[in-house]
Write a structure and sequence with these properties.
mainly alpha, Arc Repressor Mutant, subunit A, two-stranded antiparallel ribbon, 5 helices, 2 strands
Length: 131
Amino acid sequence: MNIIISNSAGAPIYEQIKEQIKNAIFSGELTDGELLPSIRKLAKDLQISVITTMRAYNDLEQEGFIVNVQGKGCYVQPKNPELLREQKLRDVEQHLLNAISDSKLAKISDKELMDMLYLLLNEEDDIEEGE
């Protein structure tokens, strides 16, 4: 797993770490029961504060993505399909809210926005059928 931190990303560093670990779990790059780097090692590798990595790991544990085994480290939790689906639903909802906000700024009508979504959905279906 390769975590990349961007100072210009606009998101706090702990959020960037958290999101990249979540994405690695969703994509299968990190598997159930896999040991994550220790908080200290990750902080050293990324050249950031231990407190920052601890916050990312604590958030991931609270959200049910990892488990901290005292004295042994943090492990990827076995995937709970309902939890994964709920997380992705929240992600999609946030992206849609951002799209709505951007469309209002650009004075794009609701119909135009819906047409764009419909076209993109059909384009995605066409790509999948061509594979």
